[in-house]
Amino acid sequence: xxxxxxxxxxxxxxxxLVLGVWGLWHTYFGHWRPGPGGGPMAIPRIMFLVLIPAxxxxxxxxxxxxxxxxxxxxxxxxxxxVVIWALLxxxxxxNLGLVSSTAIMLCVAMLVLSPRPMQSLKLVIPxxxxxxxxxxxxxxxxxxVLQVRVWWF
Length: 153
Hints:
Number of strands: 0
Shape: flat
Number of domains: 1
Number of helices: 5
Helix content: over 70%
Strand content: under 5%
């Protein structure tokens, strides 16, 4: 039985590939704030280095095994939402720095996912501030002492 290629699946994979290549290029040639260790572009660079092979694998699978690549709208929407969230987070990291953007995005994420956002506000803000403090300690105090460096950073 012959299976037709699902165009939505292939287009989605190609969009992820383009976003990955663009993001990786931007981490190398964009204007990022300086930072300790790998700098604020280290985590986005890792994400884009994972996104590119994943998109290539999706494209290869779509052509090699088209019967297993039928588009389901909910997972594609979730993947799209995660990619948009990550791009927004990395844009904030680029403009505000790692600690500030982590605290902001953590607050937003906890408020969005909370069943009663206004009642959980008294817990959300302290947790976000403690997390931001932990990020600050990790990336400004611990990483330089350990001289954490990876070859692509």
